[in-house]
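Troubleshooting: if your tokenizer reports a length mismatch, compare your output against this known-good record of 470 residues.
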Amino acid sequence: MPKEKAKKNPSILLSGGRSTSGKTVTTIGIMAALKKRGYDVQGFKVGLDYIDPSYHKFITGNPSYNLDGYLMEEESIKKQFIEKSQNSDISIIEGVRGLYEGININTDIGSTYQISQILDLPIILIIDARSITKTAAAIVKGIKNLKKPDIIGVIFNKTGSKRHEEKLEKSVEKYTDIKVLGTIPRDERLDIEMRHLGLVPAKEMDSLKKIQEKIKDIRRVMEENLDIKHLVKIARRYKSSIKNKKISEQIHKDSRNKKQEKNFENKKIALAYDKAFNFYYQANIDLLENLGAKIEKFSPIKDKNIPSGTDGIYIGGGYPELFLNELEDNESMKQSIYDFYQSNKPIYGECGGLMYLMNSINYRDRESNMVGVFNGKAAVGDKYRVVGYTNGGIIRDNILGKKGIRFRGHEFHHSKIKKLEESNFAFKLDRGRGIKQNLDGLIKKNVLACYTHLHFLSHENFPKKFVKNL
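Known-good structure output:
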């Protein structure tokens, strides 16, 4: 623990000038450097990405939380941030895409800028400086002038030489009033394997040793090129000033009432969690646990059966198509889940979970048998790419909610359900693709499986309804 305890809610937000600017690598490098120095670091991710938070958690030891201005109300964002950051030494918030990218160009909703305004956070820009010098100053100045965000510094990434770095610093110093906080050279130590939906999840790295070495390399590059002590001073000086008596009282009340709300302490939810399935919002798990449900993780790849005494199953997203041999060969697990479905007990599957519950998954000209709850197959390929927000309504009662309820979510996949013989859908989407013809959420007995990913803070009745069905 550092000798001097950090002030309450010292925070910095790292935002890119665009996607692939290097903000994730910079974020995890700074987190690792802070952790090495004894700081208790709390990570947050703007937007709905699952993968970046997996690295945050691996490095800091603390679950990382998503903050999204489209799915979450402003008060929910503030409450989540205050509650999760109040006991840490420092919070690091990683942005999404460029500072202003959101749901569309006519609004700030869904953008990193929106979150910075809601939480009163200082911004450090991460700019890809390849092949630019004076233009870098124009980029920084343009971002600053568009809406006057509180940008307190810039870090240039992927610089080519000391001379290049000097030109960047002089250009920004001459044409803007923003400080250059550091420059990070091109370095193969910073390379992290990419995939069609982003970085490879931390859970999937070949071994614990491999990811530890990769994080160590990234940390060393940041320590060599950034003044970590100065970044801490900035976070303390510009700590988030949001103060909301109503939110603080609600957090205190929620803490007091947790025991009273735990009406399902003997109910167990089996959570599919391994290399194939690991896309979960920590807030979803927290809400289920706060209701008293016991979460027990299991592996559809390695375990023979679902956990003993399971009352409900939650199968999140991931990359099941990359582990078809293991999933197909685990016949006892598939039968265990199928028998659970036949017993009319609740199963909730999202995206990868939906695919796993189909008859089969087809990937790279190979068709592999899956659980078979639904008659159809999931075909995987780049041409099926769907990424974006969804909103819609419930058109059939199901294990999460009743007909007529409105909701928001998002889609994040490279697959399509084909040869579907099922016709009972729970959701009708006004925005989004769904499974077919803007319909989503297949229902069969007490099973609900959808492409839409749901963040339970956008509708807290969903987890309540789920545990009541256990």
